[in-house]
Amino acid sequence: MIKKYLLPMVVSIFFITSSVWAGGWDANKGLSKITLTGDLLCVGCSLKKLDGANAQCDLYAHHAIGFKTADGTLWSIVDNAKGHDVIRSHELLEKKKATITGYLYPIANFIEIDDIQVEGVTTEQIQKAGYEEDMLLAKRLMTRKVGEVPALSHDHKNIKNPCTAKNPFAIGGQTH
Question: In CATH, what is the architecture of 30-126?
Answer without folding.
Answer: Beta Barrel (2.40)
